[in-house]
Amino acid sequence: MKGTDHFKRTIQMYLEQRAAEDALFAKKYHNPAKNLDDCVTHILNFVQRSGCNGFTDGEIFGQAIHYFEENEIEVGKPMDCQVIVNHVVELTAEEKAEARQNALRQYQNEELRRLQSRNKPTTTAKKETNVQPTLFDF
What we know:
Layout: H1 3-21, H2 23-29, H3 36-50, H4 57-69, H5 93-119
Helix pairs in contact: 1-2, 3-4
């Protein structure tokens, strides 16, 4: 997946959540004259004009909200760029417990295999070599 697609989806998820929580913003978000592609273009042009390389989530989400709240806003020209989205995956308590159980099970299986292989007799075949016996061999 391209970075910009992931960025667009992240912005969209944030805006949809915001619209679900804020009825006033929901009306502006569902404005037929506005769309997500222009919102992303507006954000990317804002970033380029600023000259900075890194932004907080609040700054970027604030620009997305600004795009939808303003009736007359300059979107800018579309640009071809790569966007990096930093995010942290948070697991639920059930997912954490399941991951812990799976790790514990895997560890137990590995230890069991190690113990079983340690108790097996090793079969090392000695190679017969044609060595002349010495006086010490008698």
